[in-house]
Amino acid sequence: MKYPNLFAPLQINGVMLKNRIIAAPMGVPKAMLVSSTYYGGISLPDKARGGSGAVVVSSYGTADIAKCSSPFDKYARDVTRETWSLLEEGGAVGVMEFSFHPLKNDDGTIQAPSDGIAYTGEKAKAMTHEQMHMQIKELCEECKKAKEFGIRMIMLHFGHDSQCSIFLSPVWNQRNDEYGGSVENRTRFAREALMAVRKTVGKDYPIMVRVSRQLVIPETYSEDDMLYFINSVKDIVDIFNISAGMDCYGGDVDHYEANVYTHTTIFEPRYYNLAFAQRVKKETGAMVCLVGGISDPKICDEMIGEGKIDAVMLGRQLVADPYWPLKAEKGLDEDIVPCLRCLNCYHIATEHANVQCSVNPRFRRENRVPLKEEKSEHPKKVVVVGGGPAGMKAALSADAKGHHVLLIEKTNTLGGQLNVADKGVYKEDLHKFKEYLIHQIEKSHVEVMLSTCADRELLESLQPDDVIIAIGADYITPPIKGVEQARQAVEAYETGLENIYGKTVVIGGGTIGTELALELAEQGKEVHIVEMSDTLCAKGNKLYRIALRHHMEKCERLYSHLNSQVIEITDKGVLAENKEGKQIFIEADQVFLSVGLRSKKKEAFDLYGVTPETTMIGDCRSVATVIEAVNDGYFAGVNVK
Q1: pLDDT tens track for 212-261
Q2: How far is 166 from 157, CA to CA, in rounded Å?
């Protein structure tokens, strides 16, 4: 076996996991429920069958579906039973997660450690001892029901926005009784809850507890405080799941300032919580399960083999590819669909505009996107023009249907706009996805024709049954005086950012331009972004923009000029003007353009008429994101009839 440590069995108290992979609980927004995700978790059918040793489902998910207050209420039991049948169908251990989060009073205030403003930004009232004992009692009752129902393991959510985190914060916890002050007192409520749960379920029943090593906000506690808590309960907890951050934080700027550390973006390193997990193992001897940006089975195997951790918990990576465990077990790393950490699968990031996966069209669509395509009874000759992400996905989808596919690309390499990801510290995930697509093309029956311009004459000579046009878009060169002295931002990566010296101006604050500016500034260089709108990366999702801002604020020589436009570029710099008409000259040794893309619609229209079955996808139809390109490509390919 390629990864013997990752696929070694793991005993957690009274249960045995077949491997060290645990699928994280990921709730489905109620407004977005569809039949393919009916069982209380995101794409749960695939995750259950994908080879994980355990799959965690939130108790509130099954309760919400049944419109009940508990997953064990009379009219929720059918949903809960079917969910567990599904989970364990694939050989996983089904785990139910119970939260230990602050509750609301009848007047709408938050039950918190102290009076004041709660973590949500709402008014808080200090919990009475009676309320604290009642919450522990209710938690114990649910855990008891889980055990009696036949659920073999539970996970208690004591991280993120939980009472454990809130009480541990010396900022939010200003109590002067036995639950406030010292770290021993600030952890007392959570300790009492765990002791009560252990007494309720018995010594042989497995309990996993999720904690946040810190909240990564001003109201946080120290990692030493969390280590104290873990050490104080290690004898009653079987395994700790190490996370960070919060799900909802009512700070001065946004309710999700800490969320980007719970669900890390491209701006944070993968295996984000590893260092603290190692401390827990070394200093307490407790079993540890790591979560946060986990993707590479080789690294997982090494971490477990070196004794740094005992298990890994995967969330978004199992959205991108629920069959990651089975592929890793077989050593098929190159077939694992890499997660981009874009957070489009998280409803908070997109504000429900498009809760989807950028790389997995089947996500939450198991009812209409099959795991394996049914072969067409009438194979066709399909020509795909353009080898970017949309074109490659279309070619792969049509090939999976059994059609004869020719993919034509005018350059000497596949990748299209994804080729910009070949360099740049924040483009590693995107680069891996490009390499994944190219590898899948190489393994398929798709015929590839590079360095070929697919004009109308060529298409007519090929006599295709279907044509899929994915010729992309061109970078825009704006009509600015002196613009010939500037270069496109993508050329900076070709030059090598380490070879760029002096002061830089980036015209355009979209994703490419802003990430370029950030990378240069993090190298200590002075960079100015000039953006016409009032928002940087306006097309990026909410959490991406928050994480980006956090990193930009750390750069002392990175400047943003919003609501401004460049009116002239000289050999000394750029002249910009804001919406009030005030002009400013910004010195620069080089100027890069990043003002967007223009769809090649005219060129695409010229290819129509060769066959009645012609489809435009990706950037040439409308400038697209990766999620749009992949979805366009998939559906265009499978809909070849």
Answers
A1: 999 999 999 999 999 999 999 999 999 999 999 998 877 665 688 999 99
A2: 13
Amino acid at 223: E
Q: What is the per-residue pLDDT across 386-434, written as a single tens digit (0 to 9) for each?
A: 999 999 999 999 999 999 999 999 999 999 999 989 988 999 999 999 9
CA–CA separation, 48 and 57 (whole Å): 11
End-to-end CA distance of the chain: 41
Q: Quick one: which H or E segment has residue 112?
A: strand 110-112
Both tokens assigned to 51? 């080879």
Give the alpha-carbon dihedral of 276, 277, 278, 281, to 10 degrees. Answer: 130
The candidate with the shortest Cα–Cα distance to 80, out of 155, 150, 157, is 150
> Is 384:468 a contact under the CB 8 Å cutoff?
yes
| Residue 28: alpha-carbon gap to chain centroid | 15
The first and second tokens of residue 439, run together, are 């590898």
* 3-class SS string, 535-597: CCCCCCCHHHHHHHHHHHCCCCCEEEECCEEEEEECCCEEEEEECCCCEEEEECCEEEECCCE
Kindly give the parts of the chain with pLDDT less than 50: 29-40
Question: In the numeric block, which tokens belong to residue 461?
Answer: 């000579």
Q: Which of 473, 474, 470, 475 is nearest to 386 (CA)?
A: 470
Question: How many C-beta neighbours within 10 Å does residue 537 have?
Answer: 18
180: which residues sit within 8 A by CB, 6+ positions away? 113, 114, 173, 174, 186
Amino acid 253: pLDDT: 59
CA atoms within 13 A on the CB side of 259: 22
Neighbouring residues of 97: CB distance < 8 A, sequence distance ≥ 6: 25, 56, 57, 58, 59, 154, 155, 156, 157, 210
